[in-house]
Write a structure and sequence with these properties.
The structure holds 2 protein chains of 2 kinds. Chain A is mostly helical. Chain A has 4 helices and no strands. Chain A starts with a helix and ends with a helix. The chains are: A mainly alpha, B mainly alpha.
Chain lengths: ~100, ~230
């Protein structure tokens, strides 16, 4: 029980510090153009990494190809055809659930 | 005088815009939170699971730490796993820092609303709008905490929350932001996305959960090359 609360407390403090580090230390300051170019490209790099990890990660560091990848592929097709955002997200869930139901 | 009034009202508007933009990912957040509540209750207890969501507000860190505790690991290992899973918020915080005003304390407090969907929605052109991030998290935070409570409450009744397919909503959401926003902004963004995705894919089997996204941040150096 003590281990649980110690973990929660310590992780809460660590998580808050990680979030605050950049904004507190270098926030509000003018940045040289190379730094801004770097942070600007952090967007697409992080987004692509989130898509990849949340689509292909299994448990315990495994790379998996499961129903999620079909759902995300369906979302990509709909995005190319300029479907509405909410429809895209709904389709990803429905297609993934259908593939799971069939498999 | 007039300017400050205009600015103030426009900030309220941007927060409201953030709330609206954040509504659809908040639904997915709610579902992930329910699955966290279900998964965490046997290890943390009902109160532990809900308090953890309230004070950490970070799914990947929470799932990682609970997985270690559930497997019999100690506090130090659990916190370390959580920190690694959470580490991407370091560079993501750096990316938004130049666009945040006010005192260091205010910026530190505002940065606590940093979660993936809100951060992704708040990027504007080459910049960042903290008011949008805050607005999106105003709706994501209650979704996260109340969803956890719901998961704790219904626990045993839900067998496998993954049967819904809602775990595909987040990758689809980030993909939508990528395709609609970033990739339209030139070949450099496309290269950064390709390199980031490839780095993450390669490192998934090699490093703990969450770390592939941190490694993928290295792809941003494409921004300073020419």
């Amino acid at each position: 029980v003590t281990a649980t609360w110690t973990t929660i407390a310590a992780l809460a403090v660590a998580a808050a510090i990680i979030r605050a580090l950049g904004p507190a230390l270098v926030g509000g300051r003018r940045m040289p153009p190379p730094v801004l170019a770097l942070t600007e490209m952090l967007g697409p790099a992080v987004l692509a990494a989130l898509v990849v990890t949340q689509t292909f990660s299994g448990s315990d560091r495994q790379l998996v190809l499961d129903a999620r990848s079909v759902g995300v592929a369906a979302a990509l097709v709909l995005l190319v055809f300029r479907a509405r955002m909410l429809f895209v997200l709904l389709a990803a869930a429905v297609v993934t659930a259908l593939v799971r139901a069939v498999a | 005088m007039t300017t400050s009034v205009v600015n103030r009202s426009s900030r309220a508007e941007r927060i409201r815009e953030g709330v609206e933009l954040g509504a659809s990912p908040a639904i997915a957040t709610l579902v992930v939170a329910v699955s966290f509540g279900v998964a965490a209750r046997p290890t943390l207890g009902a109160a532990g699971a809900i308090v953890m969501s309230a004070v950490i507000f970070g799914g990947s860190a929470q799932f990682a730490a609970v997985a270690v505790l559930a497997a019999g690991g100690g506090t130090v290992t659990a916190v370390a796993a959580g920190v690694l899973a959470h580490a991407r918020y370091g560079p993501m915080g750096m990316a938004m820092a130049p666009w945040m005003g006010g005192s260091a304390l205010r910026r530190a407090l505002l940065s606590q609303s940093l979660v993936d969907p809100s951060w992704a929605l708040a990027r504007r052109g080459g910049g960042f709008d903290p008011a949008i991030m805050f607005g999106a998290s105003v709706i994501a935070y209650p979704a996260w905490v109340l969803g956890t409570a719901a998961g704790v409450a219904v626990g045993g009744f839900i067998g496998d929350s993954h049967a819904t397919g809602l775990d595909a909503v987040f990758p689809a959401f980030f993909l939508a932001l990528l395709v609609r926003g970033d990739l339209a902004r030139g070949s450099r963004a496309v290269a950064a996305a390709a390199a980031g995705g490839a780095l993450a894919l390669i490192t998934i089997p090699l490093v703990p959960t969450g770390v592939p996204v941190v490694i993928a941040c290295a792809a941003a150096v494409i921004g300073v090359t020419r």
